[in-house]
Amino acid sequence: MSRQTTLEYDWEFGQEELSLAVHSYASGGGLYIGLLNGKTGEQFSDLTVNLPYFQTEVNEAYMDDFDSKNKLAFIKRHELGEVLPEQGYSGYGSYYKVAFDLDRLEELDPDGMKQYRKTYGLKAPERGSKKKQYGQER
Prior knowledge:
Layout: E1 7-11, E2 14-24, E3 31-37, E4 43-46, E5 48-49, E6 60-63, H1 68-77, E7 81-90, E8 93-100, H2 102-108, H3 110-120
């Protein structure tokens, strides 16, 4: 098991250090992203929700609506993906659709993404390709 990077998550009760857990849902097979406590590994929240009757690409998922304002900020702050204009609906709830950056998710949960890529027959990114060079001109 690879050591996972933790990311800061700000919400009404302060700041949490979280890691990501990438899997696929049993029903529908869509992208699942869980948020885990960075120290204990305990479940903190789900970043995504399963809406199997709404079409998504392999890199897309609907964001869980609990604490959605802070989850949107978390996604943007850590460059996890791009919020799309479409929304999904279930009951009275509406859910933002997000196109996640699978290469970025691979940096944060290598084991989970390895299994997810295997499930969908997706190639892993080439080493050294398209790596962001923070603070350097391109």
